[in-house]
Amino acid sequence: MQQSRIVEDAIMLELKNATQSLHDDTEAGHFNKELVMGRIPLEGYIESLAQLFLIHRALETHLARIRTDNPAIRAVVQDYQLQEPYLRADLDFFGRNPEAAIPTASVAEFLAHINRLAVDCPISLLGMHYVFEGSNNGSKYISNALRRAYSLEGNNGLNYFDPYGDKQREYWQAFKSDMALQTFNPNERKAMVDAARATFAAVKRLHEELFERFGTPISQAAVI
Ligand code: HEM
User: Fold this and answer.
1) Staple 39 to which of 34, 134, 168, 197, CB 3.0 to 4.6 Å?
2) Ligand 1 pocket by C-beta < 6 Å: which residues?
3) Where are the alpha helices (DSSP H) in 67-123?
4) Which residue, judged by its Cα, is nearest atom 40 of ligand 1?
5) How wide is the angle at C-alpha 84 spanned by C-alphas 15 and 99, nearest 5°?
6) Local structure of residue 156 (DSSP, 8 states)
7) Are 169 and 204 in contact (CB under 8 A)?
8) How far apart are CA 148 and CA 150, in angstroms?
9) Helices 105-120 & 42-66, crossing angle to 10 degrees?
10) What DSSP designation does 216 have?
11) Who's near 81: CB < 8 A, 6+ residues apart?
12) Which residues contact 173 (CB under 8 A, 6 or more apart)?
């Protein structure tokens, strides 16, 4: 019993260890840094929400469908974790029609990857979900910087970056224990880790595209 519990718990450790350096790269990326410093124009922030909307809509439509037949996904993925409604609310607040969003090149590629995995290996989508659910830990901190940078009030335009408010820590603990309680075979674990890594890579590419379009060129940033 003790042994199986240790093996089951290892999935969260495995995901964390396999993605730690990618996490740190993303956190230290130019787009993210400028966003936290309040130097991305509002238009760039809104565009990032539109791109994330496309990603979450695809991922979560599959997860919501697949969980009816997949006990592990059903046990882990809760309605409140679905980020599409938060993104819709934020885009509505800024007067941007979510349905009109056009994917960047990297997002179009990632959407195709999500759709492929939903057919070939549905459990991998849980690895993608892990990345976004985990990202709420840092997003909460970014949301305070965004509120100041764009003079936003309350949670207006910030639902995606702070979806859980005071429940952030509780919900993250719940996600981790629900994952730990599932039994995944080695192929499933590898599929989730690969998908989590691909998700970080996709977010990094999206951030690069957004920085190119909305960021302050590095040469200018150095003299500001
Ligand atoms: C300013 C940017 C960011 C900061 C300051 C930040 C900070 C953090 C912190 C402090 C944790 C640890 C929470 C805990 O275990 O109690 C964490 C976890 C995590 N973050 Fe970030 N983060 C940032 C950006 C991102 C981004 C862009 C993503 C992905 C889209 C991401 C994905 C994750 C994931 C998956 C975890 C869970 C790691 C685990 O398994 O324990 N983070 N982050």
Assistant:
1) 34
2) 12, 15-16, 23, 26-27, 32, 36, 130-131, 134-135, 137-138, 141-142, 203
3) 71-76, 84-93, 105-120
4) 16
5) 130
6) T
7) no
8) 6
9) 10
10) P
11) 129, 133, 171, 175
12) none
For residue 67 the two structure tokens come to 């969980």
Which numbered atom of ligand 1 lies nearest the CA of 20?
Answer: 38
At 163-221, the pLDDT tens digits run 999 999 999 999 999 999 999 999 999 999 999 999 999 999 999 999 999 998 655 55
Q: In the 3-class helix/strand/coil scheme, how is 30-81 assigned residue by residue?
A: HHHHHHHCCCCCHHHHHHHHHHHHHHHHHHHHHHHHHCCCCHHHHHHCCHHH
Query: How is residue 94 written in tokens?
Result: 């800024």
The closest-lying atom of ligand 1 relative to the alpha carbon of residue 203 is 30
Angle at 50 between CA 152 and CA 132, to 5 degrees: 90
Could you report the per-residue pLDDT of 77-124, keeping only the tens digit for each? Answer: 999 999 999 999 999 999 999 999 999 999 999 999 999 999 999 999
Alpha carbon distances (Å) from 197 to 13, 33, 89, 127, 203: 14, 21, 28, 8, 10
Give me the torsion for CA of 70, 76, 77, 79, rounded to 10°. Answer: 120
User: What topology is assigned to 2-218 in CATH?
Assistant: Heme Oxygenase; Chain A (1.20.910)
Which tokens hold the place of 169?
């820590």
